[in-house]
Amino acid sequence: MEDLKITIVQSPLFWEDIDANIAAFTKTVSSIAPSSTDLIVLPEMFTTGFTMNAKQFAEGMDGKAVKWMRKMAAEKKCVITGSLNIKENGHNYNRLVWMRPDGTFETYDKRHLFRMGEENNTYTRGTKRIIVELKGWKICPLVCYDLRFPVWSRNTNAYDCLIYVANWPDVRSYPWRQLLIARAIENQVYVIGVNRIGTDAHDMAHAGYSAVMDPRGQIISTTQPDQPSVETVTLSWKALEDFRKVFPVGLDADKFELGPL
Question: Residue 193: which of 225, 237, 171 has the closest Cα?
């Protein structure tokens, strides 16, 4: 199996300004050479910030944000992912889009909606997890608050890499950093966490702390808090496979089933 190159993009966001964010990310992503990475990961709601004005700023799957993702994926010859405020069939979703360079895509609707920020009263929760494949790797992409719920991300030999895109405030950055480590250790996978930086319209500061963890929970990226950053990290398949062979904790994992919503 080939190694996987992941590019994490830590960036501030323009509040509720789709055009300004697309322009900013166009400039940022343009700095990445075509075919130099396999996957570009952007933050949660990267075109609007974590807005609860969902109806005013939502787009359909045929909107400018999804079209931009398709264009960038084709130009950079890699997958690009991040979440958007999407409207569909009378509902609004905090939807992660997994856009391939050939224009095909998968979507994941955030399951755990942040009730302390009224997200649960604004957006419709997702009902299923997805596993996507990239160069033979199996990847599970999730969104922000999902990080606090280990059952939802529990690996039953289903994936090799776990991704969280986020708008996670600095006031709770300690749980963000510790839970990323925990998810890597308990699932024996690489974990990628991409968070925004800067202050939003509610004067809520975000420090980023975007990171890549190896299956032992060790940080293998160098992105610094509070700084705009584009960093490419190589995930070693051999290192993952070797660790799972010498320390096969999954063989002793408890079996479980998720109940109804």
Answer: 225
Among 16, 44, 119, 140, the one annotated catalytic: 44
pLDDT given at position 261 = 65
Instruction: HSE, CB side, 13 Å, CA atoms: give it for residue 206.
Output: 26
Tokens, residue 235: 């995930």
4-10 and 229-235 strand pairing: antiparallel
End-to-end CA distance of the chain: 37
Residues in Cβ contact with 218 at an 8 Å cutoff, skipping those fewer than 6 apart:
none
Mean pLDDT for the stretch of residues 1-12: 97
Distance CA 226, CA 11 (A): 9
pLDDT band at residue 14 under the 50/70/90 scheme: very high
Q: Would you say residue 260 has pLDDT above 70?
A: no
Separation of alpha carbons 58 and 60, rounded Å: 7
Segment 221-229 shows an average pLDDT of 97
The whole-number pLDDT of residue 257 equals 80
Active site residue 64: no
Q: Among 155, 145, 224, which Cα is nearest to 190's?
A: 155
User: Across residues 227-231, what is the average pLDDT?
Assistant: 98
Report which residue type is found at 165: V
- pLDDT for 30 equals 95
Hunting for tokens 């697309």 — which residue is that?
A: 22
Helices 64-76 and 18-30 sit at what angle, rounded to 10 degrees? Answer: 0
Q: Is 14 exposed, middle or buried (0-12, 13-18, 19+ CB in 10 A)?
A: middle
Catalytic: which of 110, 119, 140, 161?
Answer: 110
Candidate list 76, 119, 140, 144, residue with the active-site label: 144
Whether residue 44 lies in the annotated active site:
yes
The reported pLDDT for the residue numbered 202 is 95
